[in-house]
Amino acid sequence: MKTFPENFLWGSATAATQVEGAWNLDGKSPSIWDDFAHTPGLVSDGSNADTACDQYHRYSEDAALMRELGMNAYRFSIAWPRIIPTGHGEINQKGLDYYSRLVDTLIANGITPVATLYHWDLPRAIHQSGGWLNRKSVGWFEQYARTVIKALGNRVKYWIPINEPNVHSELGYRHGWHAPASVGGRYTALQVNHHLTLAHGVAARAVKELVSGGIVGTGVNVAAFYPMNHEPRHAEALRRCEQDQTQWYLDPIFKGGYPEEALKRAYDNGDDFFMKKGDDELMFGHTDLLGFNHYFSIWVEESDAHGYQGWNYGKTPEGLEKNAWESVVYPQGFYDCFQRLSVRYKGFPLIVTENGLPDPSDAISADGQCHDVARVGYLRKYVGAMKRALNDGIDIRGYMFWSFMDNFEWAAGYHMRFGLVHTDFQTLKRTVKDSGRLYREIIASQGACLD
């Protein structure tokens, strides 16, 4: 099998809230995630992200570790409330200076910066003005995006405007399991998602206008879906599920509009009250890479419980390995995502913006090392599946493992560990895990060690 190309981006990913700490230093205002984590009972282990991994002060150490592991890319996010504390208006220069230092340090270590503009940490002030339910948030986001792009665009080529708009709108605004802890129902989630997709559009245009050779990608969470069995009714459920769960979030950007059938189902025969003239044009185009996060393979079945959608999550087949999330370890699903995305969105190169394994049992052994056996196996299987897709002719440009280091895992707090690097949350000591050493070997051999 051929190896990955020399210019392939081998990296890892984090989010500002999860690693930076310094939640109220140097002019940063509270985000909705600061408020969520400071509310008793919302984070499962009672923790918060006030210090997290303290990357705000330890970024040089972390960049050196990335270089040691052979990475040539790092996907990080920028905290909107660190740049414009009131959400729109006056710029906080100290916030811009921090990200400028981070970018310079990454480049000095031979690491390509991949910047995400929004990874869920909405400024409190924007939330108090309606948050993503307020269409004005798109314009406020554009001011923030242009501020950052102007400041860093001479050094940052790769930009991802929005991370997982589907997860943010569903878990944050529909179910209330994430910040801002809103329980608003499906119409609320759809409207939030629409504004997030518009925000992607305005930021993509800003990159093309302000960055010479700038490259824009998406960061949508994409699962591999399968029918419960070969009965036609379940195959039809699968078709609808893929429209609602994948195509809904990617078609406006890469095809110029929502899937028509799904739009009619979602809005009771086409009641598109959330749309305005020109929205399709604003969401569409100016995006170069189809970036996706992948964690799940899910089986679906026909269901009358949700009459408007006609599908529901079904039972996972027996005998499949499961991870700490009780979701399956199924590398075939990863491979199938490459295949399906490359067919539906032909002509757009793919990049994996997140992929990883949770394991709360990761710990430092008596020998001072972290032997994360499950993640080592996962990494071999999933990068192997990606290599198979590459050998089948699919254009894949990069892979960002989630995560560089153990961090604050949203509503699960510090219980769920994802890192290639172990973090001691008492001392903040970093220790490369066995999976990190394997990743270094994969990168050094351009995947040849997997044969």
From TrEMBL:
Its EC number is 3.2.1.21. It catalyses: Hydrolysis of terminal, non-reducing beta-D-glucosyl residues with release of beta-D-glucose. Keywords: Carbohydrate metabolism, Cellulose degradation, Glycosidase, Hydrolase, Polysaccharide degradation. One of its GO terms (molecular function) is beta-glucosidase activity. InterPro entries: GH, Glyco_hydro_1, Glyco_hydro_1_beta-glucosidase. It holds the Pfam family Glyco_hydro_1. Belongs to the glycosyl hydrolase 1 family. This is Beta-glucosidase. It comes from Geitlerinema calcuttense NRMC-F 0142.
